[in-house]
């Protein structure tokens, strides 16, 4: 039989390692670009396992005297609390308070980030409808409707939600060849179809709440880059890899290229709607642009055995918090 202290400390340490050095090293690894789908699954498992492990370990230290398993101890603990019969050392109360505080901060931050994102997305959509002109862009199968922004700056992004928008600028239309423009539109439509905004939202909230922890902000950046790579691969299936690589390179090297925030050419953006918190679009001039071009021109898939290993690691991490419910202690 395991002792409660050993189990709890093991879970807390595992959670801190996942949120810190493990996330930091995974964000710096090169292999996720070769398998962005499995890498994103692993990132989700790391995020969930980190939070649940820290909270679960603290809960275990708090309720351990009330039973021999977590499923037995928690109901007994609350029953004794409401009956006024609960007597615990001060440090067990501190552990319980920490678990409650961490859970409340993470859940409240996720809820607030979601509300703020939806609110800003709605306002951004109204601005897009006011300042852009819908236009049909020819595709191989059917036309795609995009909202054209009268700006010389090359920019493309999506505003997801119940009424999504794909926004491209007039500068982008002038810059790209037809196949490259199709690649950009397919890239943005892939974001909408896969709801990449929902995938990245928890990581944005995680970074907002725990940004001081090394590796947390790196995780958010890595996930944002991986969804761009996934969208690139979808677009490449329609237009070919060379068109995607050329489009990314042209936009990245174009003068006055716009980032997600900040002025254009050192001047305020004025009425030009930017990709905001509710949009899905990475800065095409960012550090991932070269990687995105290279992986299209010289694709290197991760070996099947390695992909299986990544999936097994994700499964094991997802099982880590659940295993706490099954462990018995003395």
What would you note in describing this structure?
The chain is an alpha+beta fold and 330 residues long. The protein folds into two domains: 1-88 and 300-330, no CATH class; 124-299, no CATH class. Helix content is 65%, strand content 6%. The protein has eleven helices and four strands, in the order ααααββββααααααα. The protein has helices at residues 4-28, 36-63, 70-82, 90-131, 170-175, 178-194, 196-210, 216-239, 241-253, 288-297, 304-323, and strands at 132-137, 144-149, 156-159, 165-169. A hairpin with a 6-residue loop joins strand 1 (132-137) and strand 2 (144-149). The N and C termini lie close together (6 Å).
Keywords:
330 residues; 4 strands; 2 domains; 11 helices; 4-stranded mixed β-sheet; 6% strand; single chain; alpha+beta
Determine the N-to-C terminus distance: 6 Å
Strand content: 5-15%
Our count of domains comes out at 2
Radius of gyration: 24 Å
Mean pLDDT: 84
The secondary structure category is alpha+beta
| Main sheet: strand order | 1-2-4-3
* Outline type: elongated
Tally of alpha and pi helices: 11
List how many beta strands DSSP finds.
4
How do the SSEs run, as a string of H and E? HHHHEEEEHHHHHHH
* Oligomerization category of the chains in this entry: single chain
Biggest beta sheet summary? 4 strands, mixed
Q: Helicity level, as a percent range?
A: 55-70%
Low confidence ranges: 258-274, 276-280, 282-287
């Amino acid at each position: 039989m395991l002792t409660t202290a050993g189990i709890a400390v093991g879970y807390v340490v595992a959670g801190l390692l996942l949120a810190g050095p493990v996330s930091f090293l995974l964000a710096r690894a090169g292999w996720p670009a070769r398998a962005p789908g499995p890498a994103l699954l692993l990132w989700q498992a790391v995020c969930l396992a980190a939070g649940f492990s820290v909270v679960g370990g603290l809960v275990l230290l708090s309720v351990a005297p009330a039973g021999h398993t977590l499923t037995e101890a928690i109901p007994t603990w609350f029953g004794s609390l409401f009956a006024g019969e609960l007597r615990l050392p001060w440090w067990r109360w501190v552990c319980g308070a920490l678990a409650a505080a961490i859970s409340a901060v993470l859940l409240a931050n996720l809820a607030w980030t979601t509300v703020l994102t939806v609110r800003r997305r709605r306002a951004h959509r109204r601005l897009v409808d006011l300042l852009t002109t819908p236009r049909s862009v020819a595709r191989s199968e059917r036309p795609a409707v995009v909202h054209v922004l009268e700006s010389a700056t090359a920019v493309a992004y999506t505003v997801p939600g119940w009424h999504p928008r794909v926004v491209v600028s007039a500068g982008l239309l002038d810059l790209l060849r037809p196949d490259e423009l199709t690649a950009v539109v397919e890239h943005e439509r892939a974001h909408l179809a896969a709801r990449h905004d929902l995938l990245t939202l928890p990581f944005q909230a995680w970074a907002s709440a725990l940004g001081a922890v090394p590796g947390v902000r790196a995780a958010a950046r890595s996930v944002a880059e991986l969804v761009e790579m996934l969208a690139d691969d979808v677009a490449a299936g329609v237009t070919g890899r060379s068109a995607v690589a050329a489009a990314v390179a042209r936009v990245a090297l174009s003068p006055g290229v716009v980032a997600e925030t900040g002025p254009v050419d050192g001047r305020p953006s004025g009425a030009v709607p930017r990709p905001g918190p509710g949009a899905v679009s990475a800065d095409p001039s960012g550090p991932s642009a070269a990687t995105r071009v290279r992986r299209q021109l010289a694709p290197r898939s991760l070996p099947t055995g390695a992909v299986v290993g990544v999936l097994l690691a994700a499964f094991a991490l997802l099982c880590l918090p659940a295993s706490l419910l099954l462990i018995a202690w003395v």
